[in-house]
Amino acid sequence: MKNISVIFLLVFTGLSGFAQQKWTLQECIQRALDENIQIRQAELDRDAAGLDKLDAVGNFLPSLNGSASVSENTGLSFNPVTNNAQTTTFLSATGRLNVGYTLFDGLRNFRQVQRAKFTALAAQYNLEKLEDDIALIVANGYLQVILNKENLKVLQSQNEVTRRQIDQTKELVDGGVSPRGDLLEVQAQNATELQNIAAAENAVQISLISLAQTLLIRDYRNFDIAEGDFNIYGEEILALSPEQITQSAKEERYEIKIAENNLDIAEKDVQIAKGAQYPTISAFFGYDTRYTDATSFSQSIDQDNPFTEEQIGFVQGTGQPVIGQSPNFISSIVRPDPFIDQLYQNDGIGYGLSLNIPILNGFQTRNSIQRSKIAAERAAINLEQAQLDLESNVYQAYLDAQGALKTFQAAEAAVESQELAYSYAKDRYDVGLINAFDFSQAKQRYDNTQIDLNRAKYDYIFKLKVLELYFGVPVDQLKF
């Protein structure tokens, strides 16, 4: 379905352009779409859903983690290179790089991506539905202001006639042609009309304030809308049957699309939960290296004096000493190798596969699957309910539009007949055949029918456009 703000711009193209602080319907709708708090929250939900989709795609990438540590040891410690215990102070550093990749997890990663796509689509549908709802609210409020202004114009126009009638009646009374009671009757009528005008002006201001509040505009005093004359177009949609409109609405309306996406999400949740029953196969690879500035000791045989002799015992009976030889080692301090050399000398790698087989986890997997199935059944019921609600709403909108049409036609007929009656009463009053009271009654009936016609007209326009939107009429096919 096209953006409803553009639709209303084309439908109500008779509005005058923006001048000073007078707002057109399009400007009001755009203001609401830009400033409405609920829409801004829905936009954040849409953005968050996009991040969830990116997270799901990221699960297909290998994990890569690096770590490094530097420490200084004092006292008895193990040299991280030689693994010998020594009492000294030395600096050591280690570095590691680990790579992991999930080869199989019951297709859960794949289905998480599918679920994330449905979630992002549902968030977008929610945003567009909210925009349509806000646009309808603004359009209805805008029409209410126009209606109140039209009613005010009717009352002001008729009051001008009444003021001219006062002058005319006063001349007749002063000339002795009409009784003074006629003048009092006309003056009373004028007072009543002034009260009605004041009430109509108040209704205009209240409707303007209500619209301004919808648009989050604080300057009520200077807020006003551009006036224009609205015509009735698109009545051919009433030639369609409610069934045809309902079928189109099921294909176009966001309520159904949202419910369908929620069902798809719930079904994916069932598949994801079932994936936990399967083994998980992962691959890993690790690389590490180390460095230390600790010195070490090296022992070697003294080439000048390779052996040492010492008495190790004596021969019993003769007392002859027994001499033993042992290698003559000399110790030397070995300085640490350069940093870069140690990184190459002390590195190592590790790699392999890991298999995780779920056997028993306290029924958590089983219960998770059952909960997902229940949620899927609930989503299916919600979809069915959404379809029923939409069908009911379409039928209601269809009947409302038909009823509004009948009311509008009856109001037109009433205005036509009351206009003739008013004209006839005026002619008779001018020649003195009826008194001022009877004439004021005829004039009041005519005024009321004009107000009723305005109300019926704008009510019919709004309900007709609602029905067209349910049907999904494209912008380029709207009659205006």
Textual characterization of the structure:
It is found in: Cell outer membrane. GO terms for molecular function: efflux transmembrane transporter activity; porin activity. Keywords: Cell outer membrane, Coiled coil, Membrane, Transmembrane, Transmembrane beta strand, Transport. Pfam families: OEP. Residues 152-203, 249-276 form a coiled coil. By secondary structure, the protein is α+β, with helices and mostly antiparallel strands. The chain has 2 domains: 4-295 and 335-477, Outer membrane efflux proteins (OEP), CATH 1.20.1600.10; 300-334, no CATH class. 60% of the residues lie in helices and 19% in strands. The chain has 10 helices and 10 strands. The protein has helices spanning 4-11, 25-35, 37-58, 108-174, 180-214, 242-252, 254-275, 339-345, 364-430, 436-471, and strands at 22-23, 63-78, 85-104, 224-225, 280-292, 296-301, 307-314, 321-327, 329-334, 348-356. The strands form 4 sheets. Strands 2-3-5-10 form a 4-stranded antiparallel beta sheet. α2 crosses α4 and α4 (108-174) runs antiparallel to α7 (254-275). The longest helix is centred in the N-terminal third of the chain and has 67 residues, at 108-174. It is elongated and about 180 Å long.
